[in-house]
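Hi all, long-time lurker, first post. I run a small reading group and we've been trying to get comfortable going from sequence to structure in the token notation. Rather than ask abstract questions, I figured I'd post a concrete chain and ask someone more experienced to write out its structure so we can walk through it together at our next meeting. Sequence below, copied exactly:
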Amino acid sequence: MALEQLSCKNCGEPLAAGQVNLQTGLASCAACNAVFTVAGQGITPTPAPPSRPPRIETSEFGPAKEWRWKWWNAGYAVLLVFALLWNGFMLFWYGAAIWMILDGESGGWVMATFGLIHLSVGIGIGYTVLAGLRNTTTIRHAPGVLEIAHRPYSRFFGGGQWETRTFTAIRIETIYGNKGRISYRLMAVRSEGNPLKLLSDNERDMIRFLAYDLAAAMKLPLEASA
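-- Answer (accepted) --
Happy to help. Here is the structure in token form:
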């Protein structure tokens, strides 16, 4: 239905183009000052694309586009303090265990064995902090190909390269975890197989921006929005 054919739900007066907001789906009538939705009169609200977060850099090379950002944020600073405390304690623990072993006490081996699980946790936390300090994520899209890389530390963090011919949509999934924690997943819906998880992050605005921008670059619909 053409925009000039829309009318006020309250008084019936025709609406001018400037009285309808396509992003919100709301209209205001100049005759009676009523504000109402026009979604049922042939107008579908069109949400404004999210703005680019400052931490994300974008580049274009002909038909190819690249998104890049560093991992470091305040959350890693907190994790760094925790890692120092945890691994400092483990250093003390194994120092005592080694001292006991060298002194011929069998309890040293018990301490060393008991601490293995805690040591592995400390190593994992330390690796995560190191990645947070140095890693950069790069997304590259060229016609028919999508690549996501986390460097210099990529092990356990995903990434990969995929042909996009089977991609049918981009999706955002909201994940509700323990203690009210919320994270967001950037997914690619495929015509063959299950949806593919591209990224996950706690920053909603970043995932929304990437979803909109990737969908536009690949000329795919955005199936859902967080």
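A couple of things your group might point at:
Helices lie at 74-102, 107-114, 116-134, 204-218.
DSSP finds four helices and twelve strands in the chain.
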